[in-house]
């Protein structure tokens, strides 16, 4: 059962009986492919009582939730946040205080640009039991689904995961951190600021011909990969119009991209 936020007041209104306090699990749903869920995450979903989920959680993953579970969508559209983070934190506290065990389901991994740390701290301060179940983050899942090694001894000795959306919008990249050519950069939530990211990286010393992969809906059946360069990134985004969720992967490792690798192409082999 999916519940609108407006209907929560009645649900959380005390009925005269003080309930036993519930608990919250911060669960990583991975980048979309349901088979990339951890065994623990799948077990928790199968016995879920309440699921508070994000927009980036795929339909395939949500299909694993029992029909009897209460599902609350707190997804944030780019530039359109239905609930502010503080309200989501309070919602989790209120649900647990009403005696419910809650699965807080987040795309990717809760602790990698998922704001799981903020939710964990709020729950701990409220005295709510909280456990974190990690998930496969988008960088790992999307790169694997595209045949791109995030590190390769010939061209990438380090990896940086970077938010493509700063507190005030446009990201401000640390020149000392991103200028080295022998590392892979992965930008989360970077589509809107792709032109700025490209310009900043080039100004900080990255070659204009550095390859870039835009991975849209990574690991999902509708995955799309666009290969370009730093110099051509803004134009590619303008022409091809990739949609969220999309990841920007920058570095020489992009040259290993396998266009023949299709999501699920080896499924029948793996099933044998």
TrEMBL record:
<dbReference type="GO" id="GO:0016491">
    <property type="term" value="F:oxidoreductase activity"/>
</dbReference>
<dbReference type="InterPro" id="IPR035996">
    <property type="entry name" value="4pyrrol_Methylase_sf"/>
</dbReference>
<keyword id="KW-0489">Methyltransferase</keyword>
<dbReference type="InterPro" id="IPR006366">
    <property type="entry name" value="CobA/CysG_C"/>
</dbReference>
<dbReference type="InterPro" id="IPR050161">
    <property type="entry name" value="Siro_Cobalamin_biosynth"/>
</dbReference>
<protein>
    <recommendedName>
        <fullName>uroporphyrinogen-III C-methyltransferase</fullName>
        <ecNumber>2.1.1.107</ecNumber>
    </recommendedName>
</protein>
<comment type="pathway">
    <text>Cofactor biosynthesis; adenosylcobalamin biosynthesis; precorrin-2 from uroporphyrinogen III: step 1/1.</text>
</comment>
<keyword id="KW-0511">Multifunctional enzyme</keyword>
<keyword id="KW-0456">Lyase</keyword>
<dbReference type="GO" id="GO:0032259">
    <property type="term" value="P:methylation"/>
</dbReference>
<comment type="pathway">
    <text>Porphyrin-containing compound metabolism; siroheme biosynthesis; precorrin-2 from uroporphyrinogen III: step 1/1.</text>
</comment>
<dbReference type="InterPro" id="IPR014776">
    <property type="entry name" value="4pyrrole_Mease_sub2"/>
</dbReference>
<dbReference type="GO" id="GO:0004851">
    <property type="term" value="F:uroporphyrin-III C-methyltransferase activity"/>
</dbReference>
<feature type="domain" description="Tetrapyrrole methylase">
    <location>
        <begin position="24"/>
        <end position="233"/>
    </location>
</feature>
<dbReference type="InterPro" id="IPR014777">
    <property type="entry name" value="4pyrrole_Mease_sub1"/>
</dbReference>
<keyword id="KW-0627">Porphyrin biosynthesis</keyword>
<dbReference type="Pfam" id="PF00590">
    <property type="entry name" value="TP_methylase"/>
</dbReference>
<keyword id="KW-0597">Phosphoprotein</keyword>
<dbReference type="GO" id="GO:0019354">
    <property type="term" value="P:siroheme biosynthetic process"/>
</dbReference>
<keyword id="KW-0808">Transferase</keyword>
<dbReference type="GO" id="GO:0009236">
    <property type="term" value="P:cobalamin biosynthetic process"/>
</dbReference>
<keyword id="KW-0169">Cobalamin biosynthesis</keyword>
<keyword id="KW-0560">Oxidoreductase</keyword>
<dbReference type="GO" id="GO:0016829">
    <property type="term" value="F:lyase activity"/>
</dbReference>
<dbReference type="InterPro" id="IPR000878">
    <property type="entry name" value="4pyrrol_Mease"/>
</dbReference>
<dbReference type="InterPro" id="IPR003043">
    <property type="entry name" value="Uropor_MeTrfase_CS"/>
</dbReference>
<keyword id="KW-0949">S-adenosyl-L-methionine</keyword>
<comment type="similarity">
    <text>Belongs to the precorrin methyltransferase family.</text>
</comment>
